[in-house]
Amino acid sequence: MAAPKKGRRSPGSQGRPGRALAMIVIAMVALIGGMFLSGHTTPRLGIDLAGGTSFTLEAKNQPGKPNAINTANMNTAVGIIERRVNGLGVSEAEVQTQGDKHIIVNIPKGTNAKQARQQVGTTAQLYFRPVMTTTSGGKTKQPSSTPSPSASASKGKTDKGGQSAGEKPKGSPTPTSTTQGRAVPEALKADKAAPTPTPSKTPKSGETGKPSDTPSQPSQADQEKLAKEFAALDCTKPAGRAAAAEKAANSKPTEPVLACSQKGDSKFVLGPSEVEGTDVDDASSVFESQNASGWIVQLDFNDKGAKKFAKTTGELTKQQSPQNRFAIVLDGEVVSDPEVTQGAITGGRATISGGFTQQSSADLANVLSFGALPLSFDIADETTVSAALGGEQLQAGLIAGAIGLALVVIYLVVYYRGLSLVAMASLAASAILTYTIMVLLGPGIGFALNLPAVCGAIVAIGITADSFIVYFERIRDEIREGRSLRPAVERGWPRARRTILVSDFVSFLAAAVLFIVTVGKVKGFAFTLGLTTLLDVVVVFLFTKPLMTILARRPFFGNGHPWSGLDPKRLGAKPPLRRRRPAAPGPADTKEA
Fold it and tell me: What does residue 107 show for φ and ψ, rounded to 5 degrees?
């Protein structure tokens, strides 16, 4: 006698629903634990709900650029500042123009105000200039044959065949009897052998007087003037350091400049710029264990910049200290001045080091990545923004959300009865996931919850409830066809699944497009809508469906209790509700036959 065939599992069946439920419960516990461990138990609020700081930036006229303040440059500056302070676009920092030469930047509460000032006020004009001479402790370093520590120890530690240039350790300069008044002119003369875009050598016969755009050496009078300014420059005083930075930042790249280090412990005479910030393709903050400070900023040059940097460092190798060094100048201040002693640095990569912390290296990399501002700005005003109006609107929004949620619950209880418990449990799971993720995204990516984001979360209640209703109606359709609950749960799932995925895909696509094409607070609405749409798919697949599979095995739902919401009679099921096997013939029937 042939063994009976095992029945095939119906489409969409789930043999072990407990595993899926365990997965989502573990995920919720992990998110809640992470929320408490992070020390953040409430979402970070936007400026309209929590208040914050407002900066007013005023564009400055630049020497040699009388028409620099125009609509195009102002709009470019707004875009760069917004990318700096807004990250992914959900931290709710607002950047907009006001009038012809002002930009308003609103930073929500909870953002480091000092860090924000640096982000919005830094022009990020980056230049790589050869060092002509420098002093530390009041003594001028002259070209010397004495070898000094170089950055080549880190050579070969970067990717793509690039070489690193690190910060030269600050040490006591070689004593010299040469006065500062003579040191600068002699350094300028010695710099004739230093690299320039076109090597500044003695002109060939017939080339004298030929017009050229390349940097030229300063005259004797200019050298003497520069020497006096260098001797008078005091970088240990903030006022002197600020004046030198402003003058250097407003100088032409083809001119030699005076500059101070960021800490004010050194001052420099720097030659014409060889490589500019526009030649930098990308910048990133990297921790390097072999570096004394640990954190560095790694620069990747574009093709043009890589060639210029390799040529410049190759020429610097031929010079003696300190003229074998190049200064990395950011907004008129020397960030780093590494030596080059072992050949040209090729591979299109360099590093900036010099006592960075993780935050300061990340800030500098962020500024360099998004590019330099086309204009220089002063912070004309800084005020504190109140959140009183936003608080009232939030209260009204929460009341509206509570009313909407109550209406949804009443509808589910009246129409679906026992199934409403499944829907409410699924809504609770979705709410837990949404809340914990929003809290963790605050310190993670700077996400700030504003009024449009709250609206997006309220709209998501309807989207999530709609997914449950689609599934419940598919189950009811199967019961109306005469099937019992357990087959109905499994057979209705594939059809409901397709509908839910299509619906959520359309919602997510709309949210993504809205996030990409809009600016400002609308991004918060789009981000929240997209997040809750993804979580709806997770909850339906890992919570609602497994929970229905388990409940279908319980008599209250499986036998179609009137209050279960799955009563076959109430749904108008076709008879017979269940097929029965015909009874075996008895002895009397056999005899009669």
Answer: -110, 125
